[in-house]
Design a protein that fits this description.
The chain is of the alpha+beta class. 33% of the residues lie in helices and 23% in strands. The longest helix has 21 residues, at 388-408. The chain binds flavin-adenine dinucleotide.
Length: 456
C-alpha cells in the first residue's frame, strides 16, 4: 500500500491533527535525548481512545507496519526510536486518572498519565498518599517507567516500579483488548494474583509484546515528615556491609549513593544519601542516631550539609541530571545495571576506569531496591550533542560498560539495542527459546517495536 494511503487510513481512525507524516513532526520522534543516532520514522499518531489504539494496531498488523509505543520518550537508550521505521504511537493524549482507590491504595490510570500529573493530583486530592515516581523529568509517564522496571522514591522500601503494577489493559497485535491481573476477574484492580502472572511479559519487553492502555499502580502512605542523613565513605569495600546493616534496621525509606570526581571535594568518596521518614521529630532523631552509629562502625562518617543543599535533595524529582552536564553540551546517557550489593565496589572501579579512559568526568551512583535485595548502579556519560565525535565516544563507553557489567554478573537495565544483544548472548538458551516462542505467538507478524529483544 502506498504511504499516502496509509496516512489516509490513519486519519480515518484518529483526527487528522493527531496523525502526521510531515518531516517537521517526524524529526522530533526520530531521536531521543540519549546518545543513539537518529532513525527513520514514517508516521506519528496520538490516539485518545482504546478503540483508536485497536484500529491502528489492526491496520499495522494487516499491512505489516512496525508500531512503537511511546510515553514520555525519555528512557535515553533509543527504545522509542524505530529500528525498522513505522508508526510511533505517542500515548500522551490518553491521560485520564480513572480512579484512586485510597482504601486499597492504587491508582487506575491511562497509559499517558505523567509522573508530574499523578503526583500533583495526589498532592491536591489525596495528600496522605504518594505514587512511586522516578527522578526523571515530570513529563515521563507512569506506564513507561513501570514498564521498564524503573525505580525512584520508595524503591528501597517497596521494590522497583514494575513490581508495583497490579493490573494491565493491553492491546495485543490482533487488535483485541486483554486484561491482566485481578481486573481480568473482578472490578477491583487490586492485585496480580492469585492466577498465573502474565504481567511480567510486558515489563522490560520495550513495547515488543503489546500496547498498554491502562494500568493500576500501587500507591503508598505519605509519612508526615521526611529528612536526609548524609554519610561519607572512603573505602568502597565497606559499602555492601554498611548498606545491608542500614536496610536490616528498617530505618531508610530510600538509599542513594553518589560517586563523582566533581566538585573536587567529592573525589575519592562515596556520598551516602539516606532518606528517613516519620510522624514526629523524635522518630526522625532516633533514626538519625542509628544511622550515625552505623556510619561510624563502617569507618564512614556522618556529614552535615547546608540547608539549601539538603532542600535540593528533598525535591521530587530532584536535581540529579543537571549535575551530570559536565560537558555543557546537554547530553548524557547512562548504563544502569541491576546488581547484587557485593558488586558495588567493583562497579565503582569499572565506572571510574571507563570514564577516565574516555576523558569523561566519573559520575556514578546507585539506588537501593527492595530492602537491599539489589541495587540499580548507574554509570553516566555526558557528551556534547553538537559534536558527533563526542557522542561516538559516549556510545563506545556505554558499550564497554555493558560488557564489563555482564562479565562481573550484573544486568544492564533498559539496555539500548547493542546492550540487548549482549544480554541475549549471555542468556540461558532455553530462556531465549521460550521468549522467542511467546513473542511469535503474540506477534506473528513482528510488528511490535521490531528489532528489540530479537532472538536470532
Ligand atoms: C534526567 C533523567 C533522570 C532519570 N531518572 C530516572 C530515575 O530516577 N529512575 C528511573 O527509573 N528512570 C530514570 N530515568 C529514565 C527514564 O526517563 C524514566 O525511566 C522514564 O520514567 C521512562 O518513562 P517514559 O514515559 O519516558 O518511557 P518511554 O521512553 O516513552 O518508554 C519506555 C519503554 O516503554 C515502552 N512503552 C511506553 N509506553 C508504553 C505503552 N503504553 N505500552 C507498551 N509499551 C510502552 C516504550 O516502547 C519503551 O520501550 C531518567 C531519565 C532522565 C532523562
Amino acid at each position: 500500500m502506498q504511504n499516502d494511503l496509509i496516512l489516509g487510513k490513519l486519519e480515518e481512525i484518529i483526527e487528522p491533527s493527531f496523525v502526521s507524516n510531515r518531516m517537521e513532526d517526524l524529526y522530533i520522534y526520530s531521536q531521543d535525548p540519549g546518545a543513539s543516532l537518529p532513525r527513520k520514522v514514517d508516521y506519528v499518531v496520538m490516539p485518545e481512545t482504546v478503540e483508536q489504539v485497536q484500529e491502528v494496531v489492526k491496520l499495522a498488523n494487516k499491512e505489516k507496519i512496525p508500531i512503537i509505543p511511546m510515553g514520555g520518550g525519555l528512557t535515553l537508550s533509543g527504545l522509542v526510536i524505530p529500528l525498522k521505521g513505522g508508526i510511533v504511537m505517542d500515548m500522551k493524549r490518553m491521560n485520564k486518572i480513572i480512579d484512586i482507590n485510597s482504601q486499597n491504595r492504587y491508582a487506575l490510570i491511562e497509559a499517558g498519565v505523567t509522573s508530574g500529573q499523578l503526583l500533583a493530583y495526589l498532592n491536591k486530592n489525596h495528600p496522605d498518599l504518594q505514587p512511586p515516581i522516578p527522578d526523571a523529568p515530570p513529563s515521563v509517564t507512569i506506564a513507561g517507567n513501570a514498564l521498564i522496571h524503573g525505580s525512584g522514591y520508595l524503591s528501597q522500601k517497596y521494590g522497583d516500579h514494575g513490581a508495583m503494577i497490579n493490573g494491565l489493559e493491553v492491546i495485543l497485535p490482533d487488535g483485541e483488548v486483554y486484561k491482566f491481573g485481578s481486573c481480568a476477574i473482578s472490578d477491583y484492580w487490586f492485585t496480580r494474583g492469585p492466577i498465573p502472572d502474565l504481567i511480567g511479559l510486558f515489563i522490560s519487553s520495550f513495547g515488543t509484546m503489546g500496547i498498554v492502555t491502562k494500568l493500576s499502580i500501587k500507591l503508598f502512605p505519605k509519612p508526615k515528615m521526611r529528612d536526609i542523613v548524609f554519610g561519607l565513605c572512603k573505602d568502597p569495600n565497606n559499602l555492601p556491609e554498611l548498606i545491608t546493616k542500614i536496610t536490616h534496621r528498617e530505618v531508610a525509606e530510600d538509599i542513594l549513593l553518589g560517586i563523582q570526581d566533581k566538585p573536587d571535594w567529592m573525589k575519592g568518596y562515596t556520598f551516602i544519601i539516606v532518606y528517613i521518614t516519620g510522624e514526629s521529630e523524635e522518630e526522625l532523631n532516633n533514626k538519625t542516631k542509628i544511622l550515625k552509629a552505623l556510619y561510624r562502625k563502617a569507618n564512614s562518617r556522618y556529614m552535615k550539609v547546608p540547608k539549601h543543599i539538603e532542600d535540593v535533595f528533598l525535591e521530587k524529582p530532584q536535581f540529579a541530571a543537571k549535575a551530570a552536564d559536565f560537558r555543557k553540551g546537554g547530553g548524557f546517557e547512562y548504563v544502569g545495571a541491576f546488581i547484587p550489593l557485593q558488586l558495588i565496589p567493583k562497579l565503582i572501579q569499572i565506572g571510574t576506569d571507563i570514564s577516565l579512559k574516555h576523558g569523561i568526568v566519573p559520575t556514578l551512583g546507585a539506588r537501593l531496591i527492595g530492602q537491599g535485595h539489589s541495587a540499580m548502579f548507574f554509570i553516566s556519560y555526558s557528551f556534547n550533542r553538537a559534536d558527533p565525535k563526542d557522542m561516538e565516544n559516549a556510545r563506545d563507553a556505554l558499550h564497554e560498560t555493558n560488557k564489563a557489567v555482564l562479565e562481573v554478573g550484573g544486568i544492564p537495565w533498559k539496555a539500548e539495542i547493542e546492550g540487548q544483544q549482549l544480554i541475549l548472548e549471555k542468556m540461558d538458551p532455553n530462556y531465549k527459546k521460550l521468549l522467542k516462542a511467546i513473542k511469535n505467538l503474540i506477534d506473528p507478524n513482528g510488528i511490535m517495536n521490531p528489532g528489540n529483544w530479537e532472538v536470532k
